[in-house]
Amino acid sequence: MTKSARARSPRGSASTRAPIQRVDTLIVGAGAAGLSAALWLRDFGLDALLIEESPRPGGQLHEIHAPIPNYLATHGWDGARLAGAALSDARLAGLSILVGARVTRISARGRWIDREEDDAGGEARLHARALVLATGLRRRSLGVPGEAELTGRGVSHSANRDRERFAERPVVVVGGGTAAVEDALLCAEVGSEVTLLHRSGTFRARADFLERARAHPAIRIVQNAVVTGVEGSDAVEGVTYRARRGRAESRVACSGVFVRIGWEPRTELVRDQLRCDRAGYLRVGASGVTSAPWVFAAGDVCAPNCPSIANAVGQGAAVAWEIARRLGRVRG
To answer: What burial class does residue 195 get, using C-beta atoms within 10 Å of its C-beta: 0-12 exposed, 13-18 middle, 19+ buried?
Structure first.
């Protein structure tokens, strides 16, 4: 039966620790890669426990608000629908998933993690023969005043999901990749006047998208623009920015801000323990092997050449096969 619990912040200053729980495999992250690994490990007769910080499994699937065009058997589905189907399969398979569980510490060498305990007000330690990191990515934030405070009240990360809320009202899109330029086009389609702010002088977006954006009469592109703040009390009222090498601030009045400045790997708990690239993505070998014995990684956390649902599911399966092979459950 699937297990679920919601973690709470420790109460008081004293630290308590429950008895250590031991399993064959600990999987940190219950997105597509983690769920795939757990499903395959179950087929090999191995005990796996999924640890998920969010209250619901699915990981970045919940960030996909448009129809998925390139994953088998899901044509026309969005990420939430696919995540729901995956969770249903996980329940039918009897996978053990601990949700709402914030991991506070990871030991790659010791293959254990500490998580916030639900009721004891301290931490619980979980130890495994094999550790799988499938923590995925998080959206990068601007880190400017007003951004966090107005998230959900005008600050958004998806025009696919929220553009109708701002139809025929001025919006700002921040970023220079394909996602940012596409969001600018989507907002212009519903009658918004769009200001696209990009901190660089060059774009990383698809050439065809950028060409369309430059030609669109409702889209104004400002390059070398560094956002300095999001203004508003109860809702977004404007965005301030300055030239990259300047000091004077400019202001754009708007009702919505779409922040599309990319993603970063969730590896902060292991960057000083495992080999990573400059961006913080885990470096892995064949079958998800990391630089520490019996520690593996799968999915977007290890900078795949093809960041996709299909790749994450495949990597999760490959990691499970490798663990099963090392534990003598399969030959090869």
So the answer is: buried
Show the tokens assigned to 118: 């639900």
Where in the chain do CATH 3.50.50.60 domains reside?
Answer: 17-139+263-326, 155-259
pLDDT band at 20 (very low <50, low <70, confident <90, very high): confident
d(CA 184, CA 212): 10
Q: Considering only CA atoms, which of 282, 306, 307 is closest in space to residue 295?
A: 282
Q: Angle formed by the axes of helices 178-189 and 207-215, to 10°? A: 40
Q: Which fold has domain 17-139+263-326?
A: FAD/NAD(P)-binding domain (3.50.50)
Pick from 221, 213, 228: which is nearest to 197 by CA?
A: 221
CB 57 within 8 A of CB 99: yes
Cα distance from N-terminal residue to C-terminal residue, the chain: 32
User: Is 131 in contact with 105 (CB distance < 8 Å)?
Assistant: no
Pick the CATH number of 155-259 from 3.40.190.10, 1.20.1250.20, 3.40.980.10, 3.50.50.60: 3.50.50.60
Q: How far apart are CA 204 and CA 177, in angstroms?
A: 5
Nearest to 127 by CA among 320, 295, 283, 268: 295
Q: What is the pLDDT of residues 65-84, one digit of tens each?
A: 989 999 999 989 999 999 99
- How big is the CA angle at 21 (ends 16 and 22), to the nearest 5 degrees? 150
- Residue the block writes with tokens 């030609």: 215
Alpha-carbon distance of 216 to 204, in angstroms, equals 19
**92-107: string of b/e by CB count within 10 Å (b at 16+)?**
eeebbbbbbbebeebb
What is the predicted pLDDT for the residue at 294? 98
